[in-house]
UniProtKB/TrEMBL annotation:
This is Putative glycosyltransferase EpsJ. InterPro entries: Glyco_trans_1 (IPR001296), Glyco_trans_2-like (IPR001173), Glyco_trans_4-like_N (IPR028098), Nucleotide-diphossugar_trans (IPR029044). One of its GO terms (molecular function) is glycosyltransferase activity. Residues 203-360 form the Glycosyl transferase family domain. Its EC number is 2.4.-.-. It comes from the Bacteria. Keywords: Glycosyltransferase, Transferase. The keyword Glycosyltransferase applies. Transmembrane segments: none annotated. It is an enzyme of class 2 (transferase). Residues 398-521 form the Glycosyltransferase 2-like domain. Residues 37-164 form the Glycosyltransferase subfamily 4-like N-terminal domain.
Length: 723
């Protein structure tokens, strides 16, 4: 873990001109349909714009032209045909569980409701995080609330679409602002190449798959109304495999109404949305089908119409379409041909169309572009994978390590950090009034590298020392690690990259391994500390054990061994609590969140902590943690300690005085409590004698923390009484 130490007196050239990028995200996409509809186009655009931030693979539940488009873009595709019935989805879930275990995916993007239903239960069991991209209102009553609870995050096109999931943390990402539209002359030439003549009278366009609830029949019926007599209709879109008779139905309807000569059905036309300026109006007339489908989540066609400067005729009940049509066109009741005809009558007026064009430009003014939308979605994926900033570099950083009497241990941590510094970074080495030669070793590092600066600490406690370092930071983000830790090669990149996201967090919570090598430290390693590898894929048992024991990494639980914080967030939180001799990092993390800050867990920001192998020192350490958690009054820290104290107090009494059923329950609870270390032991190499010490170190930690917590609570109460 330790990098080579430069020779004394040398001044190495600073690191790369720009900070190193974090490794890309290994993304698995599960997509339901193989057609090229709106959600599939959204996916293609996302993967294109995400670029180097992701290494994608796609599993399709239905074959179709989407596969060819993905393969043309160099994306590996596997087709897994899956029917629509509950039994089909259940069998696919079982299959996907095995496939996920064998994959190296860090996060799954479920594109649509069927994809989420097929993969979310399997991923929950395996432990791979899932982000559900919800595009529309389908299956809202039956599936959306259940899927919302199963997935790790929801990306929705609008607040109305997100509502059915029951997630108040759903991230809203609309379809991006379309690419610049061609002008009217270019668009007319484009459509002429595809057999559509424009400019011979007012023309209404409807784009989308030929399915009944899209309202194409409403547009055809509107043409038969006298108010729409001059208008022609161009319908652009492929036939849907689910409704193979729809095209014939629409043609028969047009013939029956006597408007067949004014209706053109083109089939699929590539990039049709860029060439809408040749038309005089665009209609989005989606309606409910009376069952599970209907209503537009957020119509890309509506955005394309506004981009082309064409008035929008939108059916009420489609919230985002209705919003746009209200200012840049006309809103009509769903399935109301007469209302559509009246709207077309008004839109024949060139002045009305011009007012709609100007209004549409205003609607689009603040709309995010493709880069912004993709960056926001990838941020959600990266956060779900616990790898914020994946594929990004970050801003210049200040790194802070506080030392007190660490003679002989300075080089290990400092050399590892210096190897990761960028040209504009700085490294603050705070000597907190050491009485050994720590200061000499720190000064030697400052002489070797101009990015390294030594500070004189106040000599009070670690909280005050860290506050002194934050106050001296030259940059707006500060990363911290402790003197007893050896940062891994991606540690600093894992912290800094999170601050390069489009919506950066205030606090980045890193992770730590612990060393081993003897029975005591190996027992503590498997029994007392969370596992980084488990955090990457936390299965059901791991999550349950983490809730019960507290042995899990969380974005809401800060550990000072590996962390980074924005300086303004440190200021808003009031800094580290100077009264605390221990547990100051967890209390500080709570304060950042309580002051409105946000946090993310970063599994790339990994250090190895050198733990004690002496049982007496271990007991003292945990008693100190418990005491200062109690003194701080942190419910997060105190609650588990009090529960453990109660269990250890009641357990022996119940074993001694309880009946057979009570004793069996107590023993089963104790066995369950120790189950996670046993499960971990299958994958961890430990020295002989380790397993006999596991119950010892578990009890030592729990009792020591509980005793320290009670002592801290009493001290806090005495202090409050005196105050």
């Amino acid at each position: 873990m330790t990098s080579p130490v430069p020779a004394p007196g040398s001044v190495p050239a600073p690191g790369s001109a720009a900070p190193r990028r974090l490794a890309p995200l290994r993304l698995l996409v599960v997509s339901a349909a193989g057609v090229l509809g709106g959600s599939e186009t959204w996916l293609l655009d996302l993967l294109h714009q995400a670029g180097a931030r992701v290494h994608p693979e796609v599993w399709l539940l239905e074959d179709g032209p989407l596969r060819a488009e993905l393969e043309r873009a160099g994306v590996p595709v596997t087709v897994l045909p899956t029917g629509p019935r509950v039994r089909d989805l259940a069998l696919r879930n079982l299959d996907l569980a095995g496939r996920l275990r064998r994959s190296d995916a860090e996060v799954v993007l479920a594109n649509g409701v069927k994809a989420a239903a097929a993969v979310a239960p399997a991923a929950r069991v395996v432990g791979v995080p899932v982000v559900w991209a919800k595009h529309d209102f389908s299956w809202d009553r039956e599936l959306a609330p259940r899927l919302g609870r199963l997935v790790d995050a929801v990306v929705a096109t609008s607040s109305a679409v997100a509502a059915a999931t029951g997630r108040d943390d759903a991230v809203l990402v609309p379809p991006p602002r379309p690419a610049a539209a061609t002008d009217r002359a270019e668009a007319a030439a484009y459509w002429a190449e595809h057999g559509v003549v424009t400019g011979v009278g007012p023309t209404l366009a409807v784009l989308g798959r030929l399915v009944g609830y899209k309202g194409v029949d409403t547009a055809i019926e509107a043409l038969a109304d006298e108010a729409a007599l001059p208008w022609r209709l161009v319908v652009v879109g492929p036939e849907a495999p689910t409704e193979p008779e729809e095209r014939a139905r629409l043609e028969a309807l047009a013939s029956r109404l006597g408007v067949r000569d004014r209706v053109v059905l083109t089939g699929a036309v590539p990039e049709a949305g860029r060439h809408l300026a040749a038309f005089d109006a665009v209609a989005v007339l989606t309606r409910s089908d009376g069952a599970r489908f209907g209503r537009e989540g957020y119509s890309l066609v509506a955005l394309e119409a506004l981009e082309a400067g064409v008035p929008l005729v939108g059916a009420a009940g489609n919230p985002e379409v209705e919003r746009m049509a209200l200012v840049a066109g006309r809103v009509v009741p769903p399935a109301d041909p007469a209302a559509v005809a009246r709207a077309l009558l008004e839109l024949r007026d060139p002045e009305v169309r011009e007012r709609c064009r100007r209004a549409g430009t205003g609607v689009l003014a603040g709309h995010p572009d493709a880069d912004q939308c993709a960056a926001r979605v990838v941020q959600v994926l990266a956060h779900a994978a616990r790898r914020p900033g994946a594929g990004l570099a970050g801003p210049p950083m200040t790194v802070l390590t506080c030392f007190r009497n660490e003679e002989g241990h300075v080089d290990e941590v400092v050399s590892a950090v210096v190897a990761q510094l960028g040209a504009d970074d700085e490294y603050l080495l705070l000597d907190d009034r050491s009485t050994d030669k720590t200061g000499v070793e720190l000064a030697d590092w400052a002489a070797r590298d101009r990015r390294v600066r030594v500070l004189r600490g106040p000599g009070v406690n670690l909280s005050v020392a860290r506050n002194a370092g934050f106050a001296e930071a030259r940059h707006g983000h500060v990363a911290c690690t402790d003197a007893g830790c050896a940062p891994g090669p991606d540690w600093l990149a894992g912290l800094r990259a999170a601050f390069a996201e489009p919506a950066p967090v205030d606090l980045v919570v890193g992770v730590y391994d612990v060393d081993g090598g003897d029975p005591v430290r190996d027992a503590a390693r498997v029994a007392l500390f969370p596992s980084v590898d488990e955090a990457r894929r936390p299965g059901v048992l791991t999550r349950l054990a983490g809730r019960v024991t507290g042995r899990s990494f969380s974005a809401r639980r800060l550990d000072g061994r590996s962390m980074a914080c924005a300086v303004p967030a440190w200021e808003r939180a009031g800094g580290f609590d100077a009264r605390l001799q221990s547990s100051e990092d967890a209390v500080f993390g709570d304060a950042v969140l309580a002051s409105g800050g946000t946090s993310a867990l970063a599994l790339d920001a990994r250090v190895t902590w050198g733990q004690t192998g002496d049982l007496v020192d271990m007991a003292r350490m945990y008693a100190r943690y418990g005491e200062w958690g109690g003194r701080a009054g942190s419910w997060q820290l105190v609650s588990r300690d009090l529960v453990r104290a109660s269990a250890y107090a009641a357990g022996p009494a119940l074993l001694a005085g309880g009946g057979p059923r009570t004793r069996a329950t107590v023993l089963a609870g104790a066995a369950g409590y120790l189950a996670l270390p046993a499960l971990r032991g299958r994958h961890v190499d430990v020295v002989p004698g380790t397993w006999a010490l596991v119950p010892v170190v578990v009890a030592l930690k729990d009792v020591s923390k509980a005793v320290g917590c009670l002592r801290g609570l009493l001290a806090r109460e005495r202090s409050r009484s005196r105050g």
